Amino acid sequence: MLDPAETAKVSVTVRNNTNTVQRVKTVRISGTALALTFFSYDTTVPFDVPPKSEETRSFPLEPTDLGSQAIGLLPVTVEVIDVQRESIASVRTTGDIRGSLWSVYGAFGLGVLVLTALSWAGALIALARRRLPANRWQRAMRFLPAGIGTGLIAVISLSVLRLVAPSPSAEIPFIVGAAAAALLLGYVTPHPGEQQPSEMDTVRIQR
């Protein structure tokens, strides 16, 4: 758990399986979601790891500005970086970020929510006014952005609510499923040129 109001105690163990000394200079802790990095902390912790051995180092981390960067469950990567600024090794885990809903990640989710609502509103209004394209696939594509946005909202909401952290195994089913449902909905919408029978026509047919 990373709380901007508390100092986190980080302990890193590096095992060197090579035949040369590995010189660690920096430990980097970063959080990503949907292929975007929302926070990153570099801490200088210089130490050498002899061949075929391991070393452990502990250090405090004060993520004071984390509240404005992210919130919820996020994939976190811990990397050890050498003196040439190259990553020696890394490990991925899940972090519980105690940030604000108005953080960059929270604002990103709210922005996606607004854009998705506008996409649905535009598509449904066009459907009600019979202004969708006559071609079925073009009508389906008209609903696609709204479906993708719905999938993104599901992924971000589960993350912010601390239920499921974003990952390819969680993101792809939600986004692809919502996009497919929106495509199907657009595909089966009625042809805009099809006229519904009026009440007078219905009376005449019944007679």
From TrEMBL:
Keywords, alphabetical: Membrane, Transmembrane, Transmembrane helix
TM annotation in the entry: 102-128, 140-160, 172-190
Superkingdom: Bacteria
Protein name: Uncharacterized protein
